[in-house]
Amino acid sequence: MSGEGLPSRKITIQTEDLKELQANVWSNQFAPIKLEIDGTPYEAQLRFRGGHTRNYPKKSYEIRYGSNQTLHWNAEFDDPSMIRNALSFQFFNMINVPSPKTRHIWLEWNGQPHGVYLELEAVDRTFFSKRGISSKSLIYAVNDRADFRLIDSDTGMDKSSLFDGYRVMRGDDDTKTRMIQFVRRINRSTGKNHLSYLANRLDVGLYLKWLAGAVLTGNYDGFDQNYALYEHTSSGKYRIIPWDYEGTWGRNCYGRLCGSDLVDVKGYNMLTQKVLAYKTYRQAYRKILTNLLSTQFRWKVIEPVISELYKKITPAIQDDFTRKWPFYSFEEEPDVFKTYVQERRAIIKDELKKWTD
Prior knowledge:
It is a single chain. The chain is α+β, with helices and mostly antiparallel strands. The chain has a domain at about 10-120. The protein has helices spanning about 15-25, 85-95, 125-130, 175-190, 190-200, 205-215, 270-275, 280-295, 300-320, 325-355, and strands spanning about 10, 30-35, 40-50, 60-65, 70-75, 100-110, 110-120, 135-140, 165-170, 225-230, 240. The strands form 2 sheets. Strands 1-2-3-4-5-7-6 form a 7-stranded mixed beta barrel.
């Protein structure tokens, strides 16, 4: 196998270190490795990453190297197209929601072909620096308890902590406290005070664009997890960044075909419910969706992006025997995307016609 036309990455790991990682795939411990990126060698560390995918034969990895540089390598094992994450993040960037950049790579592991991976830019200090964004904190939504609710949806009881589902990646001593206060206030405040609080603490315009992106791409798992929050330094407002969009565009996170109506047009999670309780925000959201239906979320706009991604990776995919899906499934996926976009457009148009305010 060879990764014709794709950037190359090479990993060398000692047998003992690999066995230690494999002994507990759910551990987040790192192992030392030798890393080569397009011919340049680095000392680095590697760990397994992901949720249910950690039990798959082809795993995903987090790499740390150089001066605090991080890369995420996704096997995209459940996605027959290998492009759902990449296409989704390109779409978010098209609609001006800052999102990780991606590229497909060819990986070699101890001298043996490891197949095609998607390399994702980490959301970290470098991410913000490249975009000229000033942030004073960064919080990851790491599981489905990050739903902005006071009640645990599994038990029906009060959450043991309103920070359940979140992890502080960067911030000061009060970052966690401020986030807990935010969740509490959006649930308990009412009336004008609540609207004023939302306007002061949440970048609502960006949030509504993100909501539209999640709804249009059909990411059912993107509302209660699979996002990052950061506090913008000058405004003090929370802003949101999407993460992990493999289960989109007509397939769920396990790669199964799903209906184009899987995701409600108003999305999910308590914060979304609170924001859309206000007429002014509902009207702004409707305007965003209507605009995207007439601009970026059209097959004539999305198809060339898919074609370009396919052009880059098709030779390597054809040569990659580490994948779950046969090559003919990969070839057929553009039709799945087309069907999804056409059906999703119709669903959202019909739903918007029913909105009275």
